[in-house]
Amino acid sequence: MPTRPRPACQALCLLLIAGLAAPLAAQHAPDAAGSGAYDADAAVATSQAAIGRPLGDYVLTDSQGQAVRLADYRGRPLLISMIFTSCYHVCPAITQHLDFAVKAGREALGADSFQVITVGFDTPVDTPEAMRQFARKQGVEDPNWDFLSGSAETMAALVDNVGFVHFPSPRGFDHINQVTVVDRDGVIYRQVYGAAFELPSLIEPLKQLVYNRPQPNDPIGAGLFNRIKLFCTVYDPNTGRYRFDYSLFVGIAVGAVVVLGIFALLLLEYLRARRGKRA
Per residue in 232-242, is it b (16+ CB within 10 Å) or e — as a string? Predict the structure, then answer.
């Protein structure tokens, strides 16, 4: 395991924990009994209970009408966002903010480091064509981001699997706003809440999944380099972007100079002492 993270990294961890503990930014929804009150605690409990579950190998349809299996996405971390295409406000806002976060994540972690799928859960309406138009309207052009639809039976199983809470409403649907983070083995790792979440709440768990687990085909030294990147890729709130913090290497260099200086002084003293004995 790497050495303890520096204060900047510890601050990011605290920010991530605070983000998960914060209240949900979800649309108002009636409860299952139709009382008109949204039970946020129950929604969070349902969502959080999905963490640690394997993601089922559901067969969905991409925006070109081709069948895809969720197992095909294994091997890299996966983000899952659930929307309905007839939504005119919240779902577009969710997708546009996720697009912003994904771009920041690709910049920090690598263009091919993770995958994204947006799934339309309103099965009669969210056809491949509707999903394609929705992606176009939101300006999403990421090659590692697919917009998927599926049958009612498949969708019912998927939303239950990922802990996605939604209800019919006069506006179409009210639903919890969440992005589900799945690890490279297809296990649900984290839930990120809100239509406009803070970048670290999504990129920090992605960073852990991308950098904190070596792969069998990684070159020699890749594990150490990934550990360095894990703790040195930090969020800068002043710029709203991630950057690589070189201060670790500066500290190592300064430490090495100090150690070498002390060694040189000791060597000089030793040589002087030997000359004194000979005289």
Answer: bbbbeeeeeeb
